[in-house]
From TrEMBL:
Lineage: Eukaryota, Metazoa, Chordata, Craniata, Vertebrata
Enzyme Commission number, as recorded: 1.14.18.1
A biological process from GO: melanin biosynthetic process
Name assigned to this protein: Tyrosinase
Main location group: membrane
Presence of the UniProt keyword Lipid biosynthesis in the record: no
Transmembrane parts of this sequence: 474-500
InterPro entries: Di-copper_centre_dom_sf (IPR008922), Tyrosinase/Hemocyanin (IPR050316), Tyrosinase_Cu-bd (IPR002227)
Gene of this entry: Tyr
Localization terms from the record: Melanosome membrane
GO cellular component: melanosome membrane
Keyword match Transmembrane helix: yes
Principal EC category: oxidoreductase
Membrane topology, from the record: Single-pass type I membrane protein
Domain of life, source organism: Eukaryota
Length: 529
């Protein structure tokens, strides 16, 4: 009881941070708890004058959560983002963004009406110039201050309930390192106490949708700072790889000649500084990462604990994972058995789908194999291999969606770990996205994978895709309606035939006479269904 009371007290004292739209990082927005910036196109909040959106109260999910987090009111991420804002922009149609100034993923054009499909490609299929451009874009992101986002360096309470804003700038690449850290950090409970069994991006159903949004937003930010609207993240197909084939100076950085834990000085990634990697230090100080530099990227691929991860994943393990029919099961966490999500994430054996947290399979195996910055969850996005790896993990998720064609209801609506129910908003994204919104095929979000591409659809078929998807979601109702309609039709047909036979049997003397004025050629028959 005393621990819970201490946690409740720390709800108003603990430091916390997140990424915030720069336009909302000000005294007025914090005091009003409102993040509804104006759209530059017409100067109105959320572009309301142009019917792009409007400022509305946030509707939080009331669905019950799982038992993994036994506290309430001790973590700023609970009921995201209500501790900071309770009103945000709700965009209409295909508009999106914290001020409704952008298009939804998969749409483009001034009115966001043009469908667009981009293709993510194998990094080894890029030409030399394409590969060099990708590496240059990464370095540009690391050295370009984010135009749209800042991070907070204190809680709403430490900001004196919003009257003393506490924010700092951060570069575009590190915004995403920060978001990954913030979503997966421990809960601080005061003194030296923390609660580790909490993660808003891992170990639960939202793992795959969360990282899908993460990559889409990362892709979008690169497109904005470079002006390259065709940019897509390449992927590394690591199935059956004998070693880290991207760990060369030509690609993601080779091994240092004298220190195997560092990157080769011939790679510009060797000069990168990491942030948010000292989780135990933050916990002991009951503080959060403040995004200051903490040293170079560490990576020593293959020199990991072989008893935990003996090798990189195989094609057979991926195929077995894809054969699993249940997206989620049981406790819906890292102990779940026969769960596609838990097996792909790597907490279940990729040969049996039985949970085994002493081993690291599939997704987790790659992180452990890298034996460095990638191997610590909170700071893993510091290594640029992270985006190549997660793009391929997302492609496996996509293969499962295409093979099993699940309805939205397959994604758990309730009793998942905190932050992972279908209608929960993903931490710490602003604009807001719900987990269930990204439990859908990638083509509906505007991208595909090179090795998954199907024969091109003609324009009419492309036009039908969203309507066919809506029909698929309500197929059970359609079938039921068809059955009922068939029964009613059969009954009516029987009655009509019975009446017709009865009329034929009636005496000619009592049948009505037909007059010459009747025009048979103009008789029409109508029926209403």
């Amino acid at each position: 009881m005393s621990l819970f009371a201490m946690g409740f007290l720390l709800a108003i004292l603990q430091p916390s941070s997140s990424q915030f739209p720069r336009a909302c990082a000000n005294r007025q927005s914090l005091l009003r708890k409102e993040c509804c910036p104006p759209w530059d196109g017409d100067g109105s909040p959320c572009g309301e004058l142009s019917s792009r959106g409007s400022c509305q109260n946030i509707l939080l999910s009331q669905a019950p959560l799982g038992p993994q987090f036994p506290f309430s009111g001790v973590d700023d991420r609970e009921d995201w983002p209500s501790i900071f804002y309770n009103r945000t922009c709700k965009c209409e149609g295909n508009f999106m963004g914290f001020n409704c100034g952008e298009c939804k993923f998969g749409f483009s054009g001034p009115n966001c009406t043009e469908r667009r499909l981009r293709t993510r490609r194998n990094i080894f299929h890029l030409t030399t110039s394409e590969k060099d451009k990708f590496l240059a874009y990464l370095n540009l992101a690391k050295n370009t201050p984010s135009r749209d986002y800042v991070i907070a360096t204190g809680t709403y309470t430490q900001m004196n309930n919003g009257s003393n804003p506490m924010f700092r700038n951060i570069n575009v690449y590190d915004v995403f390192v920060w978001m990954h850290y913030y979503a997966s950090r421990d809960t601080l409970l005061g003194g030296s106490s923390v609660w580790r069994d909490i993660d808003f991006a891992h170990e639960a159903p939202g793992f795959l949708p969360w990282h899908r949004v993460f990559l889409l937003m990362w892709e979008r930010e690169i497109q904005k700072i470079t002006g390259d609207e065709n940019f897509t993240i390449p992927y590394w197909d690591w199935r059956d790889a004998k070693d880290c084939v991207v760990c060369t100076d030509e690609y993601m950085g080779g091994r240092h000649p004298t220190n195997p834990n560092l990157l080769s000085p011939a790679s510009f990634f060797s000069s990168w500084q990491v942030i948010c990697t000292r989780s135990e230090e933050y916990n002991s100080q009951q503080a959060l990462c403040n995004a200051t530099s903490e040293g170079p990227i560490l990576r020593n691929p293959g020199n990991n604990d072989k008893s935990r991860t003996p090798r990189l994943p195989s094609s057979a393990e991926v195929e077995f994972c894809l054969s699993l029919t249940q997206y989620e099961s049981g406790s819906m966490d890292k102990m779940a058995n026969y769960s596609f999500r838990n097996t792909l994430e790597g907490f279940a054996d990729p040969r049996t789908a039985i949970s085994n947290i002493s081993q690291s399979g599939l997704h987790n195996a790659l992180h452990i194999y890298m034996n460095g910055s990638m191997s610590q969850v909170q700071g893993s996005a510091n290594d640029p291999i992270f985006v190549l790896h997660h793009a391929f993990v997302d492609s496996i998720f996509e293969r499962w969606l295409r093979r099993h064609r699940p309805m939205l209801e397959v994604y758990p609506a309730a009793n998942a770990p905190i932050g992972h129910n279908r209608e929960n908003y993903m931490v710490p994204f602003i604009p807001l996205y719900r987990n269930g919104e990204f439990f859908k095929p990638s083509r509906e979000l505007g991208y595909d994978y090179e090795y998954l591409q199907e024969p091109a659809l003609d324009s009419f078929q492309e036009f039908l895709i969203p309507y066919l998807e809506q029909a698929r979601q309500i197929w059970a109702w359609l079938v039921g309606a068809a059955v009922i309609g068939g029964v009613i039709t059969a009954v009516l047909t029987g009655l009509i035939l019975a009446c017709w036979k009865k009329r034929r049997g009636t005496s000619s003397e009592i049948q009505p006479l037909l007059t010459e004025s009747e025009d048979y050629s103009n008789i029409s028959y109508q029926s209403n269904f």
